[in-house]
Amino acid sequence: MDKIIVEGGVPLRGTVAVSGAKNAALPALAASLLAEGDHVLHNVPDLADVRTLGRILRHMGCVVERGEGRTVHLRVPAALNAEAPYDLVRTMRASVVVLGPLLARFGRARVSLPGGCAIGARPIDQHLKVLGAMGAEITIEHGYVEAKVPRGRLRGAEFVFDLQTVTGTENALMAAVLADGETVLRNCAREPEVADLAAALNGMGARIEGGGRAEIRVHGVSSLRPMRHAVISDRIEAGTLLVAGALTRGDVVVQGCEPDHMAALLEKLREAGAVLELVPGGLRVRGEGRPKPISLRTAPHPGFPTDMQAQMMVLAAVADGSSVITETIFENRYMHVLELRRLGAEITVDGKTALVKGVPRLSGAPVMASDLRASAALVLAGLDASGQTEVQRVYHLDRGYERLEEKLAPLGARIRRVSA
Ligand code: EPZ
Fold first, then answer.
1. What average pLDDT does range 198-220 have in this prediction?
2. In the chain, what are the domains?
3. What local confidence, expressed as pLDDT, does residue 1 receive?
4. Residue bearing the CA closest to ligand 1, atom 38
5. Which residues line ligand 1 (CB under 6 A)?
6. How confident is the prediction for the chain on average, in pLDDT?
7. What gap in Å lies between CA 42 and CA 20, rounded to an integer?
8. Would the pTM count as exceeding 0.70?
9. Alpha-carbon gap, residue 198 to 216, rounded angstroms
């Protein structure tokens, strides 16, 4: 298992480019199942999670190949094996997004229950409920979702989600585009990745209105043509890099990010004292002195993204005062706290709320990654900490970041990967 070694204390300077969004690429890859033929998807980051979904699509009978740069070519056959097996799904629970397209196109699906992960139980009750409302008959047998459509084709439905679920909304969208009649989805997730999926589907000939808004209307069509789409940039990677620039009191330009996908995050960064400036094609961040304390509460988009909570906690850990952070989306997303404490952070957790008492500087130590965003937070902490920080189990990091150390080193970070 690889680990990353960081020597803290260097103000980062320079320009870094953001990759395509993991959480836009995954549903877009799954959407290719909706149309036979040759699909082309651009700006697909080279990540462990993307490779896992590629293996699942190959298992079904698709051809999945990387072309030039960040382009992926998919050949989807007329008939395929509509199954996502446990040994693949358990490593990446977002594989559940193949459920909607399989049911829409083939009227059946066998998808392993994703199971939980470090940050929470990750139920899929909303996914199953909305697909049931569209005519799917679903049972859970031996750890698998067994779904079929007795009448052959899903039918349009009106449905209100009990809560905002990103992949739940995405599964519903992909089911509705080939359903018979109109579907109206309410209380949808409004993340930019949902809007991007809707754009990709409309590019295939779907008829979706309101992708990315709380209410989405879909007029079902009888078939779709292969995808030609470029996924949006990764707002969470961009946010992680902005925090790195502010934390190290550096001056960094993050190229290719979409500021209007990141309004809540940029607001919090300003509150923490970062100086942000729109520049052509991206955002410039400068950290001037110790960060200021913040009060932060995660929420569905357009609220503050839960995927940036751990990273902002690092900024708070060295702020000039005490910060309050409340995680409202996942029930166990403070795994990074125990490791940050090893680096000298003063953090206490009470239920959903963490109280972070800023210290002047962290001190390096060996730490263990537990989940994707926690591992990014530990790398960030190492950029500040005095001495050496060794982040172990970086396979967690590689699920969602394209060689993060290779993005930080050109900015001056003393960081390297050691393959065990
Ligand atoms: C997506 O996960 C993202 N993953 C997550 O990013 C992100 O943290 C999350 O949305 C919230 O923004 C992808 O897009 C691949 P949810 P998802 O369904 O769709 C509960 C990362 O680091 N819920 O929006 O699985 C659920 O337990 C990952 O890149 C139900 O109760 O999240 C959670 O508390 C981590 N029943 C809340 O809703 C359901 O049927 C939000 O979950 C579905 C969800």
1. 98
2. 2-18+233-419 (3.65.10.10), 22-230 (3.65.10.10)
3. 87
4. 165
5. 22-23, 26, 94, 120, 122-127, 163, 165-168, 189, 193, 306-307, 329-330, 372-373, 400
6. 96
7. 9
8. yes
9. 10
